Amino acid sequence: MRPHRRTPLGTRVPAPWVRTRLRVAPGVAVGLALLVAVTAFLAAVCPRVVDRAEDAGLRRAVADAEARRTTVQVAAPQLNPGFSPERREAALRPGTLRRQYAAVLGEVRRPLAADRAQSSYGVRTATPLAVPDAGLARPDNVPPRVVLAAQNDLAGHARPRSGRLPRATGTVTATTRAVEAAVTTETAEHLRIEVGSVIHVPGADRAPLAVRVTGILAPRQPEGAYWEAQPLLRSPSLVRDGNSPAAPTYWLGALLLPPQAAPAMLGTSGNPVRYWQVAPDTTRTPAHALPELRSAVATLESGPGHGRIRDAVDPDAVTETDLDTVLDDYEDLRSRIAPLVSVAALGTGAVALVVLLMAGGLAADRRRAELGLLRARGASLPGLAGRLLAETAVVAVPAGALGLAAALWAVPHGRSAYAVAAAGTVTLLACLALPVRAAARHRTAHLHTGREDVVSARPSRRRTVAELTLLVLAAGAVEALRRRGTSEGAGTRGDALVSLAPVLVAVIAALVLVRLHPLPLRLLTRATDRLRGAVVSLALARTSRTSVSAVLPLLALLTALTTAAFGGSVTAGIGSARDHAALLTTGADARVESTSGLRAGAAERVRGVPGVEEVTTAALTLEAKPHDGPESVPLAAVSPDAYARLADRVHLGAFPARTLTAATTTPDGSARPDGSSGSGRSSGPDGSSGSGGSAGPGGASGSGGSAGSEADPLPALASSAVAHRYGTAPFPVRLADGAHVTVRIALVRESTPAVTGTEFLVVDRSGLPSAATRPTTLLVTGSDLDATALRRAAGGSPGVTVRAQERAAYAHSPLQTGAEHLYTAAVAAGAGYALLALLLALVRAAPERVALLARLRTMGLTRAQGRRLLILESLPQALLAAAGGTLTGWAAVRLLSPGIDLTTLALATPGAAGVGHLRTDPVSLLLPALAVLLLTVAVAAVQAWVTGRRGSVRELRVGERT
Known about the structure:
Structural class: alpha+beta
Number of helices: 31
Distance between the termini: 40 Å
């Protein structure tokens, strides 16, 4: 047994600083660890989420483009006829093409990669050849034409539906008279080819080449580049023989030969060419390597790689691809979205930074007496700061590492360097916030300082200069954003100062509120001096004597609330733009249309579809010609009452129905007693009209004063472009059937449900001939509409567009959806940090409030009065922060709205109608502010309840508080 060693008297036993502090305040350490872990997680996950969205966007951009555009195609003509036949035939044989294909693949440089499973090579005839065989499809009595193609690995990319794969027997040469071939199922169906059919392809100065079809093949991956790079191999096309619209048509298809039979093409007049197709594989290509990817494509197309391909393949080889154009389009989209992403990312990062600094400032303020005592007893400033740094690092470093690990696990895709740098920055700031703040406050050793009440303290000159500097920066950022916007500067990643404009607006608003804070407190104090009871006066006195450093949460709250409001406004603007664009496209909740006219009774059958509430018919013609001129204007014939209800319901060009209703007059100008139309037509149940006479050139179809005549023109609703061009005077319009009608523009609207576009005329159908009133469009309103059910009910094969599906199609690119999710996360993070800042401030003031209640209870303060005191003490700053945050968020949206263009973010479909603007979202503007108020009241009530259940002795004991 080891003897127990006693510590000699007078020996100094140092207490470990870090362990002592963690034991004394474990709750503070746990709170700091949670704050650092969550912030490090958000900081590390943000760049990886952006990388993931950009990489997915690149893959989607390449996948959505046609394979014929993205495939790198190398083509070489046949050898010069001056070469020997054996050499010309050898150039088309599979062994030679395979070696040249390997040379082409060898020139593909990283980060461009080849999809070997979809890449191909072979020989095909460049000139289609007419085949006169009987039994083949002849749409206009014109014989079909075919191309011969011998592509590698046909067995690996197609399976026989009937028959077998073609084979080559013996050595095939240019003089071979018969070969075998296969066709795809689509080619066989359209050209009426069967297994066993023999197709005679014209020869060049020789007998036709007999091609016997041995199998009908079904492609395994018809959408893959193997088939899509040359879609004629899979699907035939109907071609017009000439440029005239009346020219006859013929079928053009492909006959698939085995690779060994390629030399037989030399015996035809089809001009065979060799080709090597490299399908790109972008599944592992990161978007940040886009410059290197474009360089690799350019090298193959017209750079050193192209020269080496010519050396290996043929001096006349040509390399073509539109992959560089696809990449340019993607880069343009990314460069327009990147500034908007920067606004969300930098805004949320600034909020997190402010909260971290606020946590450090509150910790230094809470331990002000302790640190002042240590300085007065001889502690050096570097030594004190080092101990505080060690104390904080022990908690912050493991928490930051945990947040980083969680981010890497949650989003395994993306660059790790940016995530590590972001999490490290957060951890470093968390470690330095407390020691730097304490060192700045305790530069000089002192025990007692004067009171720094928020009402009596005056800002220093240095603070004034700093605030003016921030004001200038904020004004410059706002003005730059309003002038330049976020869509300019393509190819850049966004200006950091411009992206911080919403945060700078919030900072300036917080500084203004801090300076104005004492004024309402003084007014409230004077107003409550004459009130009975001491609770209200005591609460206001406590609020007025709050330390100046305690207003730091105000800055954090306003910044967080403004960020949440701005992010919510962006998401609301995106949703509004998509809703409006979908409405402009469909005109209602669903649109059923047929250019040749809908079947009789279609409207009644569609009304019976589940979910349909109302159906409005329209007769739309695109060939209406004002003044019988060459220009056409879309004209819609509608029933004014039903159409006016629709326009008012969908909020698209609403108008009073009576303004569009055709006049019901007799030839002498008096109103008909029965209210019938003077056009001599009776209206059917669906709103169509039956003609009582033929329309003449002047537009009259009945007696001289009928609607639509020169004497009584039809009132029309027109777009602003049409109204500007033709004015408000009556003018004739020739309809598609040759009839004439006179119209007068009575209403001008920017858009209307029946017609998509910026030019249209809408008239009362009762004033048109019956041939022009046959319904072509059904505008359907309702909920949960099914496009298949609507098409089945309408009959035939009309086009059906559902508004909900059209809206969903706008969120297509992962770039758009990723940015939208980032803004949603920014709203949640802003609201969360606002509540966290409030909690930190309330926890900081909790010991003083508990001690105050304990003292007041000894003087007779009841529990209800204590609860009311704490709530009234907390409310002024909470009200100021909530109201200030709401007003600042609204002002930031109004200030920055001219420079924020959400069209690219909202509408992924090229050419989609509508424009995306920033709009205020009441939910994100008011909900976080209300949450701040509710949390303030709840925390104060809980503090009062907990204190009431405890005894006052413990709180009043000397030295009990830490």
